[in-house]
Amino acid sequence: MKDISLIRRFAAFVQKDAAFSLALRTMYFDMSTIAPKKGAEYRSTSLSILSGEAFTHATSKKTIALLEAVSVQEENDFAQEQAKAVLKDLERIRFIPKKQYVAFTKLCSDAENIWEQAREKKDFDMFSPYLHRLIEGTKANVKTRHRIETDYDVLLGDYEPRMTQVEYDRFFNVVKVQLVPFLHRLLTEGTKPDTSFLYKDYPVEKQKQFMETLKEALFLDPKSSYLATSAHPFSSSFSKYDNRITVRYLKDNVTSAIFSLIHEVGHATYNHQIDQKHEGTVFFDNMSMGMHESQSRMMENMLGRNRAFWVNLYPKLVELFPENLSNVDLDAWVGAINAVDPGFIRTEADELTYPLHVLLRYEIERDIFNGTINVKNIEAAWNAKIEDFLGLTVGNSAEGVLQDIHWSSAMFGYFPTYALGSAYSAQWMMAMRKDLDVEALLASNHMDTIKQWLEAKIHRYGGSRKADELLREVSGEPFNPQYYVDYLIAKYSKLYQLD
Fold first, then answer.
1. pLDDT for residue 2
2. Does residue 200 share a domain with residue 348?
3. Mean per-residue pLDDT for 52-68?
């Protein structure tokens, strides 16, 4: 028999949990965008207090008893599935003593502030004590879960369920075996497009003007989105109708903000197109990181770098920057924005070398948690791998080990999902092309039709459907990284005239 009182209490819990989430996300967004730096210490303390209250709300004995009771309420499938999902998500924190949790939350907030300063000063030694504490704190948190898996397997599974070191090693081996030799051949035998015009003087104010044009082409709803600037581009979804995006403008690199925006719109679109019934529930925001990255990487690379997407957009960019682009035709532009140019910065990496940046981070994280390297050796390991993979010599910490925000937020296990998401996206595109003429839609400014397909096939489910389930349903087969490798080899063989 359905327990109405139980379901009502569960609904009240979900609503309050969503309110805590909204408040905390707002504080984090402000910290990364508009909040004055001198107020960082006070905000950090306040954030830790609010996080502690949210922790108590989510992990109290009363709450756990409520969730466990609802999780066996077969008469209400939706509530039951939500409760099961919340319990699974809470496994990350529910066994951590509150004092330990609050202290770790404050450590993350402090570490992010120190990371920003260290990156500005190009000084890894300034950040390394905090990184050591973050690693040890993460290990201590994982131990409270009493899992039989290794610490790193637990962390990997938090961001992408069912993915372990064994599975990731297998995936990255496919990338290494097929793409690394191809990359070497491309760099030695291929005809590289001219990219020099991308790095001239592009005034930031004019770049911001183009962002408005680009948002329209991407059908980004102006009434439910917001664009700001930050040190590291990111997106944050506060609700179905409140999606915020940040980019970073570089005066001497016109593509940086452009493709950051397209990438983050992929994330924002995912949350914006979730079924209304998931608003405020755990399913609104518990999609795996690989799933989320598949949407952003597909939007950025497979759609945003597609020649057809620029047929109507490129003339508008030329109008803003005639001194740099008036003598550059569409094909030259498309060649340049897809060119392979091994570099230091992951977020600026081309599509072909990008998975090697991710592989580097994966191997370092794996070795940290397996005990084969320590914090003192991380920068040296990083620099050695960059040289091995890309043939580059790192000049300073800012272009090396300090470039990403993730470790300052203790997001260990997240990085591998970037490459996994790219591989997922190739499989989504294979399925999409069976239903839609993608190039014709892009060339006629109908990104909205593509987004409608994504909504119907993927987005509307939110976190209620998992990656392996959707891949089988949408593409007709389980995850197959060969689609990713084949896509990259075909694309760059044509671009670099290797055929």
1. 57
2. yes
3. 92
This prediction's pTM: 0.86
Residue labelled with tokens 């091995």 = 388
Report pLDDT digits (tens) over 426-439: 999 999 999 999 99
Q: Which of 119, 146, 173 is the last residue of a domain?
A: 146
Number of domains in the chain: 2
Going by their DSSP bridges, the two strands 242-247 and 225-229 should be labelled as parallel
Q: What is the pLDDT of residue 5?
A: 87
Q: Does residue 155 fall inside a structural domain?
A: no
Residues 6+ apart with CB under 8 A from 129: none
Whether 123 and 251 map to the same domain: the answer is: no
Scan for tokens 């039709």, then name that residue.
449
HEC secondary structure over 286-325: CCCHHHHHHHHHHHHHHHCCCHHHHHHHHHHHHHHCHHHH
Q: Which domain holds residue 190?
A: 165-495
Average pLDDT over residues 251-272: 96
pLDDT at 1 over 60: no
Q: In 10 A of CB 81, how many CB atoms?
A: 16
For residue 74, pLDDT over 80 is answered with no
Per-residue pLDDT, averaged over 303-325, amounts to 98
Residues 142 and 84 in one domain: yes
Same domain, 141 and 286: no
CA dist 102 and 47 (Å) reads 9
In a shared domain, residues 350 and 380: yes
pLDDT of 147 over the 60 cut: yes
Hunting for tokens 């090697």 — which residue is that? 356
* Shared domain check, 206 and 120: no
Phi, psi of 325 (to 5 degrees): -120, -5
Percent of all residues in the chain with a pLDDT value above 70, rounded to a whole number: 99
Mean of all residue pLDDT scores within the chain: 94
Residues with catalytic roles: 264
- 8-state DSSP, 278: G
Do 449 and 337 belong to one domain?
A: yes
- Asked if 424 and 294 count as a contact pair (C-beta separation under 8 A), the reply is yes
Copy the structure tokens of residue 186. Answer: 């491309």
193/338 same-domain check = yes
Q: What are phi and psi of 305, to 5 degrees?
A: -100, 5
> What is the mean predicted confidence (pLDDT) over 353-373?
96
What whole-number distance in Å separates Cα of residue 463 and Cα of residue 286? Answer: 5
